[in-house]
Amino acid sequence: MGRVNTKKINIGNITIGGENKVLIQSMCNIKTSNINDVIKQINDCTFYDASLMRVSVLDFEDAKAIKEIVKNIKIPLVADIHFNYKLAIEAIKNGAKKIRINPGNLTNLDELKEIIKCAKEYKVAIRIGINSGSLNKKYVGNDEPEYLNLVNSALDYIKIFEENEFFDIVVSLKSSNPIETFKAYTYFDSISNYPLHIGVTESGFDEVGIIRSVSALSPLLLNGIGDTIRISLSGDPIKEVITCKRLLHDLGLYPNYPTIICCPTCGRCQVDVKPLAKKILDYMEQNNIYKTVAVMGCVVNGIGEGKNADIGLAGGNGFFILFKNGQEIKKVSQEEAFDELIKYL
Q: Over pLDDT 90: what percentage of the chain?
């Protein structure tokens, strides 16, 4: 089906699917009843351009906290529900604009009907969130490929919702195996037009999780699959948001983001490239400067290789050459390099 042809679903003041951009999501790692901390974390992620934030709902204290949280944030809140259908209903009544439920742990038909009835009344979307650790029980331990079990679990669940005339559905099919994840989303996209939230579950921390996630998500996005995205990383959700932006930007799906070109350095390098490049990128991210900056380790190839940048620095022996569109501007010391580049930026 692809992004353009997926069904449009309203979630609060935003729309998922159709020709809309791929929306970035993350999830709070604080207990939801810690209201002030959750509000701050959501607003921090919103600053870095998260379009949706998910919170876990462990108990009724968490569900009731949503009422105060949504008063103090600007983006829709997604409530993550496991096992107890009453928590889903309470979360919806307190202002969640979307809930995520898992077919592996919410199986009672009457309870599902109660959730559907409440979601209809409050015009709330539902994400059917399948992952490899909580499949529909009838698909556990069979001889089918994992990706097929993920898809079939989703289709069984979707049928229940459609039979009860509920169609505001988003689907996720996450494995911790990037190849199975890719296969699941690709197959589901070929047979359904429900919008897809893409991600790799339990991907890991730092570069472990980034590489594992990107290996599955890049080919999906390049093939037009995926309407919302989360790169799940152990740690700060802001890092998830920024990593999503960088991926989408490099795939041509997110124009409003800075580009840093930075050489890997070699034996010719006589300046400290990495900390300077990171400082420049941090500055551009925090100040919404959507330019291309090159930070190169030497003047031998640096200016030529960075000529397509808006502005750049090429290192010498303890100094940098500041250049613009491939033309030298001035020579600056390593200590002056950041401030001088920012002036011209």
A: 72
Q: Same fold for the domain at 3-250 and the one at 259-344?
A: no
Strand 77-80 relative to strand 98-101, pairing: parallel
Q: What are phi and psi of 176, to 5 degrees?
A: -80, -10
Location of structure tokens 């010498």? 316
Question: Model's pTM, two decimal places?
Answer: 0.91
Task: Kindly report the three-state secondary structure assignment for every residue of 213-257.
Answer: HHHHHHHHHHCCCCCEECCCCCCCHHHHHHHHHHHHHHCCCCCCC
CATH number of 259-344: 3.30.413.10
- Domain boundaries defined on the chain: 3-250, 259-344
Nearest-10 crossing angle of helices 206-222, 237-250: 40
- DSSP structure class, residue 176: S
Mean pLDDT, rounded, of the chain? 91
Task: Give the pLDDT band of residue 129 (cuts 50, 70, 90).
Answer: very high
C-alpha distances (whole Å) from 142 to each of 131, 137, 158, 264 are 16, 10, 21, 47
Task: Report helix, strand and coil shares of the chain as percent, to nearest 5.
Answer: 45, 20, 35
Strands (E) in the chain, as ranges, are: 9-11, 14-16, 23-27, 52-56, 77-80, 98-101, 125-131, 169-174, 197-198, 228-229, 259-262, 292-296, 311-315, 319-324, 327-333
Ramachandran angles phi, psi of 97, nearest 5°: -95, -10
Q: pLDDT class for 138, splitting at 50, 70, 90? A: confident
pLDDT value for 88: 97
- If you write DSSP's letter for every residue of 276-322 in order, what string do you get? HHHHHHHHHHHTT---EEEEES-TTTHHHHTTTSSEEEEE-SSEEEE
The closest alpha carbon to 235, from 9, 57, 41, belongs to: 41
End-to-end CA distance of the chain: give it in Å, rounded. 41
Q: How many CB atoms lie within 10 A of CB 275?
A: 10
Q: Can you name the CATH fold of 3-250?
A: TIM Barrel (3.20.20)
Phi, psi (degrees; rounded to nearest 5) at 31: -60, 135
